[in-house]
Amino acid sequence: MAAQDKKRMLPASIAAMRSRKKQKLGGAGDRPVVPPQPAKTSVRSDTLAWKDVSLPDRLENYEGFFGLEEIDDVDVMKDDSTGKVSFLSSKPAHAAQVQPGGVNSGDEAQHGDDDGEEWSGFGDATQGAAAAAVLAPSRKVSAALKKPAKQRKQTKADEPPKKKKEGNSTAAFKTLTEELTAKEADVSAWRGLNLSPDTLSSLSELGFAKPTPIQRAAIPDILAGHDVIGKASTGSGKTLAFGIPILERFLELRSTSHRSNGAKAPLALILSPTRELAHQLDKHLTALCSHGLEDGPSIATLTGGLSMQKQERLLKYADIVIGTPGRLWEVMSAGQGTIKALQQIQFLVVDEADRLLSEGHFKEVEEILNALERDVDIDDDNEAAEEEQLAFSPGERARQTLIFSATFDRGLQRKLAGKGKSGGEPKINQDSMEYLLAKIKFREEQPKFVDVNPINQLATGLKEGLIECSGPEKDLYLYALLLLHRNTRALVFTNSIDAVRRITPLLQNLGLPAVALHSGMMQKARLRSIERFTQASNSGKPSSSILVATDVAARGLDIPNVKLGIHYHLPRAADTYVHRSGRTARAGQQGSSILICGPEEVAGVRRLVAKVHAQSAVAHEESVSEAAKQGYYIRTLDIDRRIVSRLKPRTVLAKKLADTVIAKEKAHKADEFFRSAAEELGVDYDSEEFEKTDNGRRGRGSKRKANEREAREFTKADVGAMRAELRALLAQRVNVGVSEKYLTSGGLDVEELLRQKEEGGDKGSGEFLGRVEGLGIE
Ligand SMILES: Nc1ncnc2c1ncn2[C@@H]1O[C@H](COP(=O)(O)OP(=O)(O)OP(=O)(O)O)[C@@H](O)[C@H]1O
């Protein structure tokens, strides 16, 4: 951009600055007091020491804007009557030409003479700081602000962040790490993988005596520099299957490279489909990298819901970057040099790859993959800097791509395993995993496909069963199941946020320790829920904790000792069933997965579960539907319905209470909304009148609306009375029909009932308990 162009644009930018300043100061009369300053002389704008301001890497939306310059310590004077502007500086720039008479000449002069109004910056600065936008030929002009450097709040922006120690990132996963920190183990079983002493000592401290099958199979291939697509059942240690080789490479580079403590290009980028999983990955890798290591890699986790500035700062100094696609793309697009830094990663990991493509992530994943390609976004004028940056990573090699999941689309699996049908290229569905794989530039033509569970996608310690009941009875059966698993960590899956919002208070009203998790919650509340859920039974003796969640909790979450997964709503797809069920029976433990189905859902769910079990058909080249036909038949659990029906009055009341509170909150919010809308329009709003009009409408949801209306009309006293009644019901013993022992408000005395059973007590009660606890399928 020629100096001439800058000069001609300045007046407009100053006008823009001036009008903003007026808004902020409320006119000249409100001008802040300017402290004494060194003598300043008038200089020409084009002779000032303008400095380039670095801009975000991607500027698609800036409409021709291609440069920004700033200047500090300059006062701008404007004559309101003539529009004439002059610049006063205490330290004229190298080439600054002081003008006789103190008035600018050149283009600025056409704005008239100076009448002395002093422009003193933008309100919170005592010294003016100006910045001029340098534009493309469209000649649009705008102005931007920057406080003088010395006045900028002393943030730690320019300092490398303190290295995160294990446990610092989010309290939510603290307990997870604590549980990881078991006793030191003999790690001789890892020897064959040729890991460094540092990594072995870390594994020993974590108590991981031997590699899991996916670790044993994938680590050598990754260390040998191959691209790897890894498939293994849920809870089988996939995180460390890619985490250990990343740590190995870090250690290798650390001992030979010029990596310093300053800003650097990251070594690995890990994409995660959910925020919770991203934070958990952080926790697992932090645990791996901080045990037994003096100076391990720095990890930055970029997820929505938390401070973007802080995450951007951490990113500058990170060796390993973990991110959800939305936030990562936001940071990449807005950052300065972020894309270039990320283009230098040596590992790209796509965790839970199939999920990344669903639920609206696809576009961002595609953008990220495009941007990561090295020939994209290279600024021609800046080739030298580019080369310098690329040279920064010593021994740089082409990026390795690692893709992991417990579930891959069957057709793709066959293809990856080299069993794909020969013949013409099939049309690739744009939302498919295959499409993603086509987008990724693997370093090898054929990535290694490592499948350690070709036959079984589900953990071996998992028991499955279903409970059949009518739709409206689902709450009742859920309550009964949870009562029967009183001292258990249980996860309840629903298909909607509304259901989580309804079921959580319902269970709480029934005295159960339920917490909610869904994507509509604030990020901090999400982490708090996981923390509460995780901590509840870490106190020593078993105690129950219940997480009611949408499928945001279905993938990857590694919460120890979850013994029961309940599908309150049926999973919509086979892979969702696998991942939901995979929250239990992890790392070789036992667990149960129970589906609560309406009568019309049973046939479909049987097919879905059979399909999951029929994965063996893929391995054996049979058709899945054939295998499903003769294959796995999920058992219906035999619950004593008479006993469950005795829990009905309390469940109905607890539901009514929960619905009342929700309806009142909803009404309050709607009322606020209409009131402020009416205010804006200048019309009267009468909520009762509005209600009457609304009542007149019939159609879908009118019964629900009628219930809501009824619930809204309950007074405080009504609600109080309902609570009292519920308390009384919960205090009553529920006769289990055949035993001296009862279900009470404090829950079920399972031990006592089981003891009775063992002692040959009443068979009926024991049957009820025994069948459900053991799922009747042993
Ligand atoms: N070698 C090992 N020995 C013992 N435990 C291990 C080992 N490797 C990992 N683990 C533990 O196993 C648990 C499950 O690991 P991880 O979360 O990596 O499973 P995953 O395969 O990624 O599961 P998902 O498919 O559900 O995401 C974790 O608690 C982890 O600490």
Automatic annotation (TrEMBL):
Residues 219-426 form the Helicase ATP-binding domain. One of its GO terms (cellular component) is nucleus. Its main location: nucleus. PROSITE patterns: DEAD_ATP_HELICASE (PS00039), HELICASE_ATP_BIND_1 (PS51192), HELICASE_CTER (PS51194), Q_MOTIF (PS51195). InterPro entries: DEAD/DEAH_box_helicase_dom, DEAD_box_RNA_helicase, Helicase_ATP-bd, Helicase_C-like, P-loop_NTPase, RNA-helicase_DEAD-box_CS, RNA_helicase_DEAD_Q_motif. It is an enzyme of class 3 (hydrolase). Residues 477-625 form the Helicase C-terminal domain. It catalyses: ATP + H2O = ADP + phosphate + H(+). One of its GO terms (molecular function) is ATP binding. This is RNA helicase. It comes from Friedmanniomyces endolithicus.
